[in-house]
Amino acid sequence: MTPELAVEAAKVAFSWLIDKQVAQPKRQVFTVEGNWWGLMHSYGPDVFAVKLVNVIEGNKSRGLPTINGLVVLASSKNGLPLAVIDGPTLTAWRTAAASVLSTELVVGRSVGTVGIVGAGTQARYHYAVASGYLKVDKFLFTARTSHVKLASELGADAVTLEELMRQSNVIYAATSSTSPVVRGSLLRDDFHISSVGAHTLDSRELDDDVLKRASTVLVDSIEAVEAESGDYLKARELGKPIVELGALLKGQRVSRPTVFKSVGVAAQDLAAALLVYEEALRRNIGTKVD
């Protein structure tokens, strides 16, 4: 996967969604021995994909990954499997690509200063996709503590939350917080924010002032955020215009300040898996299984 390929996959996914060329039944969530498991599936032109993912907190003490999963891509015409792809890695790429695509559609590819709130996997992938696809003058990182090490590793600046809010043209919020971390009173007048954390109805990543100041709230899928986003519920309560990202690919225009709220949808996995599979065939890479 590359930043260009990841964003191209995002364009395919959200075009499919807005054109109703893809079906994505509601994701299924299970609690298995106290751990979260999720099953997401989608099918569209010629292909079907299913993702099984879990979060096993006890794996920390076992020296094993906390997040595990697989994406299986198959032909929807003959049912034969085409590829098995690492789920967490594909998810990280496609999530960051959606944020970067929202930036391109609203701001353009020259964006000034980008601030990333968080220091985990999504922070790393947002940096990777943004730095490889956009023209960024400066990256700023903030988090509780680990952002200092991450910023040093990536050649970025570690700053306070307030400094990041005041200086950034674009902000990517990728946190595990259940209460707001992005504060609208500190933001520039022309901000664009992508929020990929707080994906339950009783959690928030953006405070009320962010949503009050936003001219438009973009979402990956209205159906998805209605079921999973407290930030969306507040935006709707405030009467904010809600626009699906795919509409911008069809020519709709919005003006800043803007928010993009994403909880992730199965169509993103489908498109990303398809493009990774096609790229692997083109480059003759990957492991072939008979």
From TrEMBL:
Pfam families: OCD_Mu_crystall. It comes from the Archaea. SUPFAM superfamilies: NAD(P)-binding Rossmann-fold domains. Transmembrane segments: none annotated. One of its GO terms (cellular component) is cytoplasm. This is Ornithine cyclodeaminase. It comes from Sulfodiicoccus acidiphilus.
